[in-house]
User: Which sequence fits this backbone?
């Protein structure tokens, strides 16, 4: 079975058949395709498969080991859940792009060489951009274009690193790289853009909230987690990642607190959670790498659950700002419950998935004696509970009553959210199956008295702080506003460049370069053309005219000779013979 087709091929090529189906048949196919992918990837044994030789290069589409399998499992599961959530979507190209995006993520985690990785890396970028554009709003089109430009730039960095590395080592195999030269730094930054490193992160809260309610669910799962996978493959134990990850866990909290758009809150929360994973990669121990993979697995589920609940709210109400919502628990009770499960999981409440995964990374930092990092991660954990654990469900479903009365989410959305919620709790209660698929043997025990008490205290004090801030009026009010982020630089930079191009470069081009070009090129060419025209009319044409005139005169003379009378022709022949004789005899006589 492993010789048939890579898992990426199932989703990418299978997605094209969506265009052939309509109605119920399309819905059945949308469920069957990711379900087949789940069965396929869970049956894959470890090994190296699907090698393709092109010229002297060997492309490896299937490096199957425990690290790639763990990411492949969760990618297949979330594709299945997201497909159920998307059953109401009638835009075929939107669905195709979502499956291509999911398939490319599968291709990236199984890539055994850099060329294969780069191919799927770029497919992901273009497919994700189209998913953003699928919302078909002006904001979505602009955000999708910015997303594409940023990721093309990241792809160019990655490609440059790959080319230099191949020139230096003669190998294209995608293994441990480490930071040791220009090529590794370019690859590192290429990965870092997709991982939303600080300063390079703005594409995420810019683009994700602008997609459709279903598109954002797909987007939340693949790009950043694929980046975490490649970092874990190429840069485990890189100390710089510890500090980058710690920064990622901290700075988004402040944006999430003041942000009014709840999907943007979740986008900043996503960066915060990826920061835990990046820190785990940087620590590089077996416990931290296991924690990274486990947290990626759990995060994909509960983050998708939160985005699905907010997507259901957006789908039913058409609103997503905290200032416009509130009191929806009366109309959407099941969505409220599922959102709370997701909020509890991301906060690390005991008996939810976040409790058994995030704590592995925090413990690894503690075991490594990294006190400052350990404190930063605890602070970030409290912040997560604040903005995602409390803020999201509180302002969407409780808080003040917005007066909105709507229907509960559609059944297929509830089913998708129910599956994700079940897995969030199931993993939290029984973490053994999750631990069994991690890259290294797991000896970690999450349910110790100390860990449970510490985490409960942390959550309790965070909730108390939120309550006191709200009651005292100190908590930042939810207001309609535009928050400045790193994307301000390239948004304003591009606008300044366009103004500079229109007002300065265009005038320089017209007034200086254009006139210089006219003086130095156009006018000399016209002079030369005039001279050639003179030669043509005075020389060539005049010569042809004289030849033609001579030909006409000769013809007139010949016409005089051609009288049609035999005696005239005989007379001419006699004259000719006499002249011929004279020509022959005169030289002899002389």
Assistant:
């Amino acid at each position: 079975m492993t010789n048939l087709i890579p898992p990426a091929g199932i989703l990418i090529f299978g997605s094209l058949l969506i265009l052939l189906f309509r109605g119920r048949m399309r819905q059945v196919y949308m469920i069957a395709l990711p379900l087949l992918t789940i069965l396929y990837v869970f049956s894959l044994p470890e090994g190296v498969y699907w090698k393709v030789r092109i010229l002297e290069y060997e492309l490896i589409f299937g490096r199957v080991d425990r690290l790639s399998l763990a990411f492949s499992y969760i990618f297949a599961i979330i594709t299945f859940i997201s497909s159920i959530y998307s059953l109401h979507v009638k835009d075929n190209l939107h669905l195709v792009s979502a499956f291509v995006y999911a398939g490319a993520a599968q291709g990236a985690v199984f890539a055994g060489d850099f060329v294969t990785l780069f191919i799927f890396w770029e497919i992901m970028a273009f497919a994700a951009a189209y998913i953003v554009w699928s919302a078909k709003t002006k904001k979505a089109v602009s955000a999708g274009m910015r997303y594409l430009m940023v990721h093309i730039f990241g792809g160019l960095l990655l490609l440059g690193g790959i080319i230099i590395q191949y020139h230096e080592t003669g190998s294209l195999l995608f293994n441990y790289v480490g930071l040791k030269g220009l090529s590794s730094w370019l690859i590192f930054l290429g990965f870092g853009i997709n991982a939303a490193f600080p300063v390079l992160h703005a594409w995420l809260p810019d683009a994700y909230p602008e997609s459709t309610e279903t598109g954002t669910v797909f987007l939340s799962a693949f790009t950043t987690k694929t980046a975490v996978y490649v970092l874990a493959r190429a840069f485990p134990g890189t100390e710089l990642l510890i500090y980058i990850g710690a920064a990622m866990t901290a700075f988004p909290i402040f944006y999430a607190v003041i942000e009014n758009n709840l999907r943007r809150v979740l986008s900043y929360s996503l960066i915060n959670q990826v920061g835990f994973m990046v820190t785990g990669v940087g620590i590089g121990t077996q416990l931290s790498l296991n924690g990274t993979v486990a947290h990626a697995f759990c995060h994909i589920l509960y983050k998708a659950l939160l985005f699905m609940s907010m997507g259901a709210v957006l789908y039913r109400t058409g609103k997503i700002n905290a200032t416009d919502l509130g009191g929806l628990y009366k109309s959407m009770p099941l969505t409220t419950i599922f959102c709370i499960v997701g909020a509890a999981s991301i906060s690390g409440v005991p008996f939810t998935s976040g409790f058994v995964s995030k704590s592995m990374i925090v413990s690894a930092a503690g075991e490594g004696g990294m006190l400052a990092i350990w404190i930063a991660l605890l602070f970030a954990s409290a912040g997560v509970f604040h903005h995602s654990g409390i803020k999201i469900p509180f302002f969407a479903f409780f808080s003040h009553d917005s007066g909105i009365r709507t229907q509960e989410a559609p059944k297929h959305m509830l089913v998708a959210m129910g599956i994700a919620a079940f897995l969030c709790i199931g993993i939290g209660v029984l973490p053994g199956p999750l631990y069994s698929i991690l890259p290294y043997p797991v000896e970690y025990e999450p349910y110790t008295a100390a860990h449970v008490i510490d985490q409960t205290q942390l959550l309790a004090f965070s909730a108390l702080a939120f309550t006191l801030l709200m009651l005292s009026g100190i908590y930042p009010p939810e207001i309609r506003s535009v928050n400045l982020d790193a994307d301000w630089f390239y948004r304003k930079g591009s606008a300044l460049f366009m103004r500079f191009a229109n007002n300065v470069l265009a005038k320089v081009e017209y007034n200086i370069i254009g006139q210089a070009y006219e003086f130095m090129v156009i006018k000399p060419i016209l002079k030369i053309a005039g001279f050639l025209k003179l030669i043509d009319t005075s020389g060539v044409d005049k010569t042809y005219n004289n030849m033609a005139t001579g030909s006409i005169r000769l013809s007139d003379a010949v016409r005089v000779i051609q009288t049609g009378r035999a005696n005239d022709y005989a007379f001419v022949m006699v004259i000719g013979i006499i002249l011929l004789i004279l020509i022959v005899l005169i030289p002899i006589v002389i």
In short: The first helix runs from residue 7 to 16. Residues 10 and 476 are 48 Å apart (CA to CA).
